[in-house]
Amino acid sequence: MKKLALHWKIIIGMVLGIIWALISSSMGWSEFTINWIDPFGTIFINLLKLIAVPLVLFSIIGGVANIGDPSSLGRMGGKTLGIYLLTTVSAIALGLLLVNVISPGKLIDEESRVDNRISYEIWADAEGYEIKDGINYLKDPKFFKRAQEISELSKNELQNAAVADKMKAVKSKKETSPLQPLVDIVPSNFFYSLSNNGLMLQIIFFAVFFGVCLLFISKDKSQPVLNLVDGINEVFLKMVDLVMQAAPFFVFALLAGVVSKMAGNDIGKVVEIFKGLSWYSLTVLIGLLLMIFVIYPLVLKMFVRKIPYSGFFKSMSPAQTLAFSTSSSAATLPVTMECVEQNLGVNKKISSFVLPIGATVNMDGTSLYQAVAVIFLAQMHMIDLTIGQQVTVVLTATLASIGSAAVPSAGLVMLIIVLSSVGLNPAWIAIIFPVDRILDMFRTVVNVTGDATVCSIIADGENMLDYIDPENPTETFDLDS
Ligand code: ASP
Predict the structure, then answer these.
(1) pLDDT of residue 161
(2) Domain map (residue ranges) of the chain
């Protein structure tokens, strides 16, 4: 019998996990699932993250040193960052287009929107913002009583602990100089960076610096270091192989836990949560699916003709299914690297440099979602953002997606910055919080697919892509031939 491909096993694990969660919630066993099954999901993510940090370090050192000369490294680095930036901005533009056309926030009933608007005005008043766009309900005696009621309500809302914590963390970050993000990239103690998964950019900085310096010392000194780095890399890749053997089981536990936490002992709750936010979720999903199934394949068709549509998905599906189940591009990185190297045929010299950087700074799915979320939240509070404000959203969503860590819910936290940049209430992340984990799964797939697409483009440009058709492994598949 033909062996079932890994991504199919992972998909089966996911489906079984969801079915288990639904059964366990209707039988009142959610606590059992959360206590006894969910921890295996956490172990899985921990294992993947454990591998990701040293893999980023050693693969970038190896990647940089193997490129051979500093000028081609500079050229490739510039190209990588440039294309990553371009894809991020395009994703935001697509998100803005969809949310302005579908207008999910305007589909909510008028009365709630007026209430929302009043609560926004109360907040803006307290923060010292001026209401510019005409309607000012607080000045209208007709709405006075309602404003008082809402004021009481929104006080409670703001005390919502889950959100308050996140806001505090972002606020403490913001109260520093404008160059702080640059300062944050340079570590003062490298071992501290290694011990914190949120400091991936510092690890990348160190690895590039180390790799470049290896190029400048004599070969007899650098070669043993490089051999060691290559050997260590092999060990980590073996670890990925082993962990992935058990992935279907781990993914079952992960999904069972995620869904049980959402549903508790009442499945109806999940349906209710989604109903209220269905148009918003749908808009985000349309954007993300367009990126995966239309935009990236089109870009590949234009720039990397060697990789056919179905071949790309076949090659990338293990990484995509893993991204979906873990909601973390950092945890998925080891598998993304394997897929891109072994299935798409990208030379290791390129992938080991381009992919770790991409996992950290290139998040097209996250940025698209942030654009949709901000405009949706504004619409449901009866606020029309001007073109100028939407351009600000493009800028801040780009920066926020670069700054988002590649872990679950990071995009939601960074949304606080995007909301604040256009004078909206950052506490609104509480509104979309209930559906965020599910959308996070889809946007992480986009993030990972985007990295692989850009990596293929760069490899092709450097003549370092040797795609082999999986159906026809002896020949190189070329659309031109
Ligand atoms: N979970 C996403 C990732 O790891 C980031 C986010 O959008 O929250 O790529």
Answers:
(1) 45
(2) 6-461
Q: Report which ligand 1 atom has the smallest distance to the Cα of 401.
A: 7
Choose the residue to mutate in 88, 372, 447, 451 for probing ligand 1, maximizing ligand atoms within 8 Å of C-beta: 447
Query: What CATH code is assigned to 6-461?
Result: 1.10.3860.10
* Separation between Cα atoms, residue 195 and residue 269, nearest integer Å: 38
pLDDT digits (tens, 9 = 90+) for 73-119: 888 889 999 999 999 999 999 999 999 999 998 887 777 777 777 77
User: Is 162 exposed, middle or buried (CB count within 10 Å of its CB: 0-12, 13-18, 19+)?
Assistant: exposed
Residue 302's Cα: distance from chain center in Å? 25
Only one residue has tokens 């703001």, namely 158
Q: Are 50 and 259 in contact (CB under 8 A)?
A: no
Q: CB–CB of 255/21 below 8 Å?
A: yes
Is the model's pLDDT at 157 over the cut of 60? no
Which amino acid appears at position 393 of this protein? V
More confident of the two residues 89 and 146: 89
Find how far residue 130's CA is from the centre of its chain.
34
Cα 303 to ligand 1 centroid, rounded to whole Å: 27
Considering only CA atoms, which residue is closest to atom 1 of ligand 1? 408
